[in-house]
Structure formats: C-alpha cells, structure tokens
C-alpha cells in the first residue's frame, strides 16, 4: 500500500510565539501527520518595505495600515527558534520541516541537514531560488498556485537542468487564495499536471474543510499539504483558511482509510470479507407451491428466494420442464437431484 506524505502546514500560525509553535507541533503529532512545516525567511530578503498586503492578509492579520514587511518581520523564526523546534519535534516523534523563501534560506536549511525541499507557489518563477534548490540535489516538492502549464514546464526544466532528478520531483496542484472557493479548486488540473510532465503529483489545499484533500488522494495524490491552526479565530494571515486540530486528525484518518480503499489489485472479484455473504444475499430457485412425484415444473411453480445456495436463478429456463422425482413442499429449495 502506498502511503501518502501528509504535511501539516503550521506556517506562520505561531504568530511569532515559540510556545504557540510548540502547541502546533503537539497537535500535528496527535493528528498523525508525517511532517509539521514552518516557514524560514527574513522579511528584508523577500518583500519590499512598501509592499502592500494581499486582500486575505488585510482581512485576517489585523492592524490597519501595517505593511506586509512589518507583518512578516514579526513572524520570522530565528536560528535559536529553529533549533528549539527541531528538538521539540524529535521529542514528539514527528518530523520538522520548513519552507525557505530565498536563496539564503535554502542554504540555511541545507546546513540543518534537510533531505527534502518544498518550493512554495510564489517562488515558482524565481530563477535563482529554483537553481539553488536544484543544486542541493535533494528531492523537491513544487507547489504551482497561480501558475499555468507553461510556467510549470519552465520551472521543472530549471530544476532538472540544475541537478534535480525527475523521479525525485513531486508537483503539487494548488490554488493561492485563502480560503480557496470550491469552484476554483479545479482538482482535475492535478491529473493534467501528471499527464503533461509524467511526474508524481500531490495537492496543497487552501479550501475550508477536509473533503478536497481526501478526494485528491483518491485521484492519485502522493503528497498532501494542509494549513492548520490551534484556533481559526486567532489574528494572523493564515488562520482563517486553516484546520483546527480535530479536523486535522479527521483528515489524516480519512486519508489513511482512502489509501486502504484504493490499494486493491483492481480485479473485480469477491473479496475475502464478502464471500460469506454470497449465499445470504443472492437467490436460488424455490417452489411456490407443493409438487408431487412426477410433476412437470412450470414457470408458475418456481420462485426466486434466499438463500442462494441452491440452483441459481440464472438456470431458470433449464429447470422449467424438468420432472420432480419426489414429493416437494412449498418454499423447498430445489436441487438438481430432485429433478430428472
């Protein structure tokens, strides 16, 4: 059975509070995800001091008039923060993960021994960034929010031409709106990506609820990424589009069930668990009236009834016209040795 890699995206939902970050790790560990992911960045390396917030950031992150730079500055994780959280993840038996947003961040995560890199949607068109990730020669997960196929193709080419092995690349379908309206999910685009580039596929979800990532796994996603928070009412850019702990666990449990459900051999045949029900659920030929020795069976004499461990009703026409060789009662199940 293939196991879906589930990434719980804590992102910046720690609100700059290391204790809140630890509580997020606790929730992710209880939910049973594979990775809990944060974000590694320095605000002055990723955004202009005058850059405006996105609409969802304006709505969810409080402080009117605050720039995107000031908002992000408060959400940075220091080297000490990283070390503390990595150690705490080890204690909780869950893997620490983070996304870098600039070349220096990639170098920093490499120094921490990262064996997997996640490229966020916003960096898909960042050539120096893509090149730096590729040069690590580590497996790569590429998110594709806001992108078209041509942009994805160019990004994949940059990665492969600079050291990423195609078999170590997973491309995630994604929509970069928080939360994503259901009509904009376009989950079939994930399959288009697979067909176009012959790569492993996955899905990074920003919808409300858990049904879309579950559906993505049923369609073949090998990686699922989902934002989560301790409380969707907290102030911050991503809380509103995040799952709370119970929903995160429900999503993980559902995905694990879907993995089992799609792991069969594809042959249509009775499963071991249902074989015992065949005779109970199907019908065989029974008598609708008493018949005496020597009677010739007509169609009005027989009826399909459970159990189905006698003559199959698919032999209906063969039974009609046969002679009964002993007295039989109404509702008796006919067997071939009763007939001549």
Word description of this protein:
The protein has 340 residues and is of the alpha/beta class. The chain has two domains: 5-261, TIM Barrel, CATH 3.20.20; 275-338, Alpha-Beta Complex (Type Iii Antifreeze Protein Isoform Hplc 12), CATH 3.90.1210. The protein has 13 helices and ten strands. It has an eight-stranded parallel beta sheet with strand order 3-2-1-8-7-6-5-4. Strands 9-10 form a two-stranded antiparallel sheet. Helix 9 links the parallel strand 6 and strand 7. The longest helix is centred in the last third of the chain and has 17 residues, at 245-261. 36% of the residues are buried.
Key attributes of the depicted protein:
340 residues; alpha/beta; TIM Barrel; Type Iii Antifreeze Protein Isoform Hplc 12; 13 helices; elongated
Annotate the secondary structure layout.
Blueprint: E1 5-11, H1 18-31, E2 35-40, H2 43-46, H3 55-60, H4 68-73, H5 79-91, E3 95-100, H6 103-111, E4 117-119, H7 127-135, E5 140-143, H8 149-161, E6 169-174, H9 188-197, E7 200-205, H10 211-218, E8 223-227, H11 245-261, H12 278-281, E9 284-287, E10 302-305, H13 316-319
Parallel strand pairs: 1-2, 1-8, 2-3, 4-5, 5-6, 6-7, 7-8
Antiparallel strand pairs: 9-10
Helix pairs in contact: 1-5, 1-11, 7-8, 10-11
């Amino acid at each position: 059975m293939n196991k879906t890699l589930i990434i719980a995206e804590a992102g910046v939902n720690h609100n700059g509070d290391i204790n809140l970050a630890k509580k997020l790790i606790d929730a992710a560990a209880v939910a049973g995800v594979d990775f809990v992911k944060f974000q590694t960045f320095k605000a002055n390396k990723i955004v202009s001091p005058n850059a405006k917030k996105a609409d969802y950031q304006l709505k969810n992150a409080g402080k009117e008039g605050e720039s995107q730079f000031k908002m992000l500055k408060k959400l940075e994780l220091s080297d000490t923060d990283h070390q503390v959280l990595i150690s705490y993840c080890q204690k909780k038996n869950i893997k620490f993960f983070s996304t870098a947003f600039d070349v220096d961040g990639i170098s920093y995560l490499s120094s921490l021994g990262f064996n997997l890199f996640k490229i966020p949607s916003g960096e898909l068109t960042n050539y120096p960034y893509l090149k730096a990730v590729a040069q690590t020669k580590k497996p790569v997960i590429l998110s594709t929010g806001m992108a078209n196929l041509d942009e994805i193709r160019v990004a994949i080419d940059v990665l492969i031409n600079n050291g990423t092995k195609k078999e170590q690349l997973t491309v995630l379908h994604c929509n970069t709106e928080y939360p994503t309206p259901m009509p904009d999910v376009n989950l079939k685009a994930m399959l288009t990506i697979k067909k176009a580039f012959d790569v492993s596929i996955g899905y990074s979800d920003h919808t409300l609820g858990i049904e879309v990532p579950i559906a993505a796994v049923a369609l073949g996603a090998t990686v699922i990424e989902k934002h989560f928070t301790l409380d969707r009412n907290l102030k911050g850019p991503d809380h509103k589009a995040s799952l709370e702990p119970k929903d995160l666990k429900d999503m993980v449990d559902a995905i694990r069930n879907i993995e089992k459900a799609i792991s069969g051999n594809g042959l249509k045949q009775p499963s071991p668990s249902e074989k015992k029900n065949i005779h109970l659920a199907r019908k065989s030929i029974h008598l609708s009236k008493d018949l005496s020795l020597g009677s010739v069976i007509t169609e009005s004499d027989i009826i399909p009834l459970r159990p189905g461990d006698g003559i199959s009703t698919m032999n209906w026409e063969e039974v009609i016209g046969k002679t009964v060789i002993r007295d039989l009662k109404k509702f008796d199940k006919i067997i071939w040795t009763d007939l001549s």
